[in-house]
Design a protein that fits this description.
Bound molecules: iron/sulfur cluster
Helix content of chain A: 25-40%
CATH topology of chain A: TIM Barrel
Strand order of the largest sheet of chain A: 1-2-3-4-5-6-7-8
Structural class of chain A: alpha/beta
Oligomer: heterodimer
CATH architecture of chain A: Alpha-Beta Barrel
Largest sheet of chain A: 8 strands, parallel, barrel
Helix content of chain B: 40-55%
Distance between the termini of chain B: 21 Å
Distance between the termini of chain A: 16 Å
Order of helices and strands of chain B: HHHHHHH
Largest sheet of chain B: none
Number of helices of chain A: 12
Radius of gyration of chain B: 17 Å
Chain lengths: 338, 170
């Protein structure tokens, strides 16, 4: 997708349209009402920039934004700020994840300014996994802010041009604010209300946990609609291919917060080619989710199966022929038309 | 203690009533606190508060108590210190992602809030914790807050009072 006002160099920001918060492509696509696709980009355990670009390239032409995770699962990797710096350099549209686990309010606000200066237009505010679940269980958990107060903090930086302390920011970070929600974890009645709370704190889009339980997700969406949240916030439903019945079973028992219904596991177990079936299932889920009122897109988390994302999105048909921007493509076409 | 904490949260309405009686009493004692000197009473009152709330709620003495907005469940017991709601890792059985043998503090908080008359306070966004208050008395802070907002209300019209009241802690 190429906008009319594309900058000549892709690493320059787009003009901020009236009513928009950021100069980013993701906000453009969301606000245009197009079915939006984002994907999780796993950071490398390396200082080689090429590894980041190689991981990003597999999504070229299929995603509108990529989440640069921030020590997800409390494991140490390249930082989300570092990844975003590399990605924005060539014009990608990363969603910078910020977890409250590792940094206090001083470090976080500094990172937000730094990231925005490097062209990051989207920030996803998370509480983060506990240190106990990662490779450094002996680390000190920070949790100075939580996802909600983090949202409010960044919104204050952007809209009031102020740090949490009240000190003035001369050029505010123009970012679109996102948050996460898990409709599949108790207390279920609280989940939609918690999204409303996040929207009140500044969230403009929500990426959800993996959706395998469509009926529960539909209830959640209906609650959001009744709360009037959908007018103020874009919902991207979380999806991802399951590699096998065994993998699914393992995730269900070992990763807290991911709910995979028995029927899904049964279906995978019964298939001759489980990996293929996992992809097929993911495609069907995306198609089903697209039909639900208020779903603006999907967020694909294909951990260690990133190479399948392009095929899944392609076969699901949700882009309807639209080709999201990627480095090189927009540039060439624009030059042609110029 | 864990079992007592579960019990108090499951009787959140009772503790809401008790607190609603208790707060005006300590507030009325303002002249006493003032005469003795707030600084002087800070330590003994904080100790008493830590004892009472420690037994009942496993209070962590953050100094800016929000029990009445969190279903009488002390959310500083959440291993992530979340002040605004449960994380996404709550287990299917309602236990904590990090300590699978324990109930999620926020599942209990939500259930407690559903019993309370003013339970919907759980839906308001809470400010970040002020860590410089750690260990100090929340009760005395409430009294000072109420007195200050009353005095401000005398001098000024409505809005200030409303703002102060919203910032009150328990
Ligand atoms: S499961 Fe509940 S108690 Fe445990 S970290 Fe998450 S919110 Fe806190």
């Amino acid at each position: 997708m190429i906008f009319e006002d594309e900058p000549l160099d892709p690493w320059h920001p787009l003009p901020i349209l009236p009513g928009h918060s950021s100069p980013g492509r993701l906000e453009r696509v969301l606000r245009a009402g197009r079915f939006t696709v984002t994907a999780e980009l796993a950071p490398p355990d390396s200082a080689d920039p090429e590894e980041v670009y190689a991981r990003a390239r597999v999504f070229d032409g299929y995603v509108d934004g990529m989440n640069a995770t921030d020590g997800s699962g409390a494991n140490c990797h390249m930082s989300s700020v570092g990844m975003c710096a590399l990605l924005t350099r060539v014009g990608y549209s990363p969603v910078m994840q910020i977890s409250c686990r590792d940094k206090n309010r001083i470090a976080i606000q500094g990172d937000v300014l730094g990231a925005a200066a490097m062209g990051v237009s989207n920030v996803l505010c998370l509480s983060g996994d506990g240190v106990q679940s990662g490779d450094h269980p002996d680390a000190k958990p920070v949790f100075d802010l939580d996802s909600m107060s983090l949202l409010e903090t960044v919104r204050g930086m952007r809209d009031e041009c102020q740090f949490l302390s009240g000190r003035t920011i001369t050029a505010p970070p123009r970012v679109l604010l996102g948050a996460a929600e898990n409709p599949f974890a108790p207390p279920y009645d609280f989940r939609a209300l918690r999204v409303a709370k996040k929207v009140a704190a500044g969230a403009q889009f929500i990426q959800t946990q993996y959706c395998y339980d469509i009926p529960r997700f539909k209830t959640f969406m209906a609650q959001l609609r009744d709360l009037g949240v959908l007018e103020h916030c874009y919902i991207l439903a979380g999806v991802g291919p399951l590699a096998s019945a065994r993998a699914a079973e393992w995730i269900r028992t070992h990763v807290p917060g991911i709910d995979i219904p028995d029927a899904v596991i049964k279906r995978l177990a019964g298939a001759a080619k489980q990996k293929q079936e996992g992809k097929q299932l993911c495609i069907e889920l995306i198609q089903e989710l697209r039909e639900i009122e208020g779903v603006s897109g999907v967020h694909v988390m294909a951990y260690r199966q990133e190479e399948t994302v392009a095929e899944i999105i392609d076969r699901s048909g949700v882009l309807q022929g639209r080709e999201p921007w990627f480095p090189g493509r927009g540039h060439e076409l624009q030059k042609e038309s110029a | 203690m864990y079992s007592v904490r579960l019990w108090t949260t499951r009787h959140a309405r009772l503790f809401e009533i008790i607190y609603n009686v208790f707060e005006p009493i300590i507030t009325r004692l303002h002249p006493l606190w003032k005469n003795l000197g707030y600084e002087r009473v800070e330590k003994p009152v904080a100790r008493l508060e830590a004892l009472c709330k420690g037994v009942l709620f496993d209070c962590q003495m953050c100094g800016q108590c929000k029990l009445s907005t969190t279903g009488m469940s002390c959310t500083m017991n959440c291993p992530k210190n979340l002040r605004n709601g449960p994380c996404g890792g709550v287990r299917g059985d309602g236990n904590c992602e990090i300590y699978p043998q324990r109930r999620c503090v926020w599942v209990e908080a939500w259930n407690g809030s559903r019993q309370m008359r003013n339970g919907d306070a759980i839906l308001t966004v809470q400010k970040p914790v002020n860590f410089s208050y750690q260990g100090s008395s929340s009760w005395l802070r409430v009294v000072r807050g109420v007195v200050k907002s009353r005095e401000a209300a005398k001098l000024n019209p409505q809005p200030v009072q409303a703002k102060q009241a919203a910032e009150n802690t328990q």
